[in-house]
Amino acid sequence: MPRLVQKFGGSSVKDAEHILRVAKIVADTAREGKELVVVVSAMGDTTDELIKLAAEISDNPDRREMDMLLATGEQISIALLTLALQKFGLKARSFTGPQAGILTDETHSFARIKTVHTTRLEASLRRGEIAVVAGFQGMTRTSEVTTLGRGGSDTTAVALAAALKAECCDIYTDVDGVYTTDPRSCEAARRLHAVSYEEMLELAFSGAQVLNARSVELAMKNRVPIRLRSTFKPTDTGTLVTSREFTPNYKICGLACDVDNVSFKLIIGEDFSTEKNESKHQERLKKLIDDLHSSGVDGLDSNAKNTSELSNLEFLCQKRISQDIQSLLKEFVSELPGSEFFQDNEIAKLSLVGSGIGTDIALASEFQSILNGASIPTRFVTTSDISISAIIPQSYRNSALNKLHQKFCAQNLEQPLEATK
Amino acid sequence: MPRLVQKFGGSSVKDAEHILRVAKIVADTAREGKELVVVVSAMGDTTDELIKLAAEISDNPDRREMDMLLATGEQISIALLTLALQKFGLKARSFTGPQAGILTDETHSFARIKTVHTTRLEASLRRGEIAVVAGFQGMTRTSEVTTLGRGGSDTTAVALAAALKAECCDIYTDVDGVYTTDPRSCEAARRLHAVSYEEMLELAFSGAQVLNARSVELAMKNRVPIRLRSTFKPTDTGTLVTSREFTPNYKICGLACDVDNVSFKLIIGEDFSTEKNESKHQERLKKLIDDLHSSGVDGLDSNAKNTSELSNLEFLCQKRISQDIQSLLKEFVSELPGSEFFQDNEIAKLSLVGSGIGTDIALASEFQSILNGASIPTRFVTTSDISISAIIPQSYRNSALNKLHQKFCAQNLEQPLEATK
């Protein structure tokens, strides 16, 4: 019997009515004669509410205890969805992440799945049950509850699809597929019929929030096809994410926008070059650069080793580490008179994604000139095999997206795109 | 180091503020130099809210899935209380029932603890941690989550105290001990300094809701002293429940009232004695009596074997099985013309509890005459070694309680009672 993993996100199971709607989709699929494993997230805002509750008690909560707390959200969903499936006359059984055999490393809050022991799930499927599994959670070797980080339920679904050799992993959410760009910012955005793992990964890394990057990597590694579909249009097949040989060969597949970055500029004080302090200051600067690199900043000039020639440093980082970076810079500035640093939170990173486009010099120059032509200031313009990116002020986000989309995504694509229904 | 189990009920951990208050009590005890295991219930109305949520989905929910659902309530509490203890600078770690090694039988929703594997808890205590354990839940041999029924967290606490050889099990709740009778119904009610397991058990069975009867049985069997205390008066030592040799030898220790009963009266139709149908009807009546006995009804005359002499049956049952009893009687009545049955939900069972009082005929007659003197109708008057009980209409509840309390509990007790503070 063909085997399928279905995953439903928090907005799809936000209350009893939504859970019954999801149960209907699952029941219809089961009646088509599929073996089904269903992965669910916590209901609606449950996770955020639990985080808020913990914040009322501690402003620096232990990660192990946060995992213990947050894992309850998905456990509530699996029990309720199973009750709904049973109400529809189907055999179903719920499994927590640990019960489903999802073994992870010990990194609480950001655990990685190491392996899946499928014995219990296989037995459940053999009994003709629909196995309903809690997403986002697993267990360490020593039976500690772990969680996989935001978007972790996608990873659970793909890992189960791989371990159970399912034919496909259907990820249901509140959007109906992958678009050329965010339809909320650009009316002309069009849905893609299919994309390759590589393109999807680049889109995810570049800020497209539709699929968690780790789950795409896992799907690529295990050759698990993902279908991204809408819970609210269950007959629509959405976007297929699969191997390149099965997807259209897009010149440009999409335009992603990431507002999760912060830029920093450090001005290195005059004092630096006085002979007396030079060596000490160079030591400090070298240490700062090392610390920045190991903190995971982006765009820091890799030639910045010759510290004596530097008058300033510019780089980007993700919002979640910006406090740490601020502390490093504050310390440096306090020890070197004349130094100062500037931070900009109001930036957006635009990325044009497509196989091989980074090596197309004409295209990169066209990308730049469109932004220039619209008087949109750009910084940190970079290219990779599969993307061209630039940082712009957030206030220009929508106008830049629309202009670039019109030029690169709306027409003249090498392969025709399916029109949005 | 002396070892103690503390248990906090749902009203003691109903929000972040209350959890921090509980953490303060635990922290103060830990700093006195005790090894501590802390058992908590679900926050406030969490369990009822989860039951309501399940009812929105299914009107006959599967018990296994209900256990999966309800177990989340205590899991939230343990994580939050552990965070609160860590905030106060203490080492603490949370354990679900399964992680704490609480093994139960397979009876979902009403599971019984079979054994406790203390390895993980012992290791935690050895590391100097406060072990925070989810009450009300356990795990079967096959790693299925089970719950222990209402009041199950008390049972968890006593079972852990027994398995870990704790010196005492402190059960914190919103009342400050065991009273001679319910203080909400009788202003003269006085708190008891100590009671024996036997007396407490009889009070619990007779409707005193202060402690779960199963937990008292377990404490008695394992000789675990219980202290019943108030979260809101942490310096008050409450009521000690322990072996008879350590408690005052009360003539009468208390007066309990149970409103969880329903009474039934079945009139057996005339038709019964016609020769033709006699044998068939006798068969039916015998079967009914057997069914009633095995359903767990109370007060059914045990001489009722000679069915041919019966013209009616009167008995009691607990509310939770009254629907089943109704169905049995409806079926019987429908098959025997002239039969009918009456049901009374508005009854209360009053029980005077004290060691050996049931054999004191003068006392039993005084009990009856006080109720008669106040024109309170009584039925099902029964005695046991340790109690005298009567069923009265619920509308007379408070006046009966006050009259009986004044006579038997307020003065002339063989041992002086500690006055309520």
Please explain how this structure is put together.
The structure is a homodimer of 421-residue chains. Chain A has 2 domains: 247 residues, Acetylglutamate kinase-like (Carbamate kinase, 3-Layer(aba) Sandwich); 70 residues, no CATH class. In chain A, the strands form 5 sheets. In chain A, strands 3-6-2-1-9-11-12-10 form an 8-stranded mixed sheet, with helices on both faces. In chain A, strands 13-17-19-18 form a 4-stranded antiparallel sheet, with helices on both faces. A 3-stranded antiparallel sheet of chain A has the order 15-14-16, with helices on one face. By secondary structure, chain A is of the alpha/beta class. Chain A is globular, with a radius of gyration of 24 Å. Helix content of chain A is 36%, strand content 23%. Chain A starts with a strand and ends in a 12-residue tail after the last helix. The C terminus of chain A is likely disordered. The longest helix of chain A has 25 residues. Chain A is built from 11 helices and 19 strands. At the A-B interface, helix 1, helix 2 and helix 3 of A face helix 1, helix 2 and helix 3 of B.
The name CATH uses for the topology of the largest domain in chain A is Carbamate kinase
Kindly report the spatial arrangement of strands forming the biggest sheet of chain A.
3-6-2-1-9-11-12-10
Contiguous uncertain segments of 5+ residues of chain A: 412-421
CATH homologous superfamily placement of the largest domain in chain A: Acetylglutamate kinase-like
Q: Which structural class is indicated by helix and strand composition of chain A?
A: alpha/beta
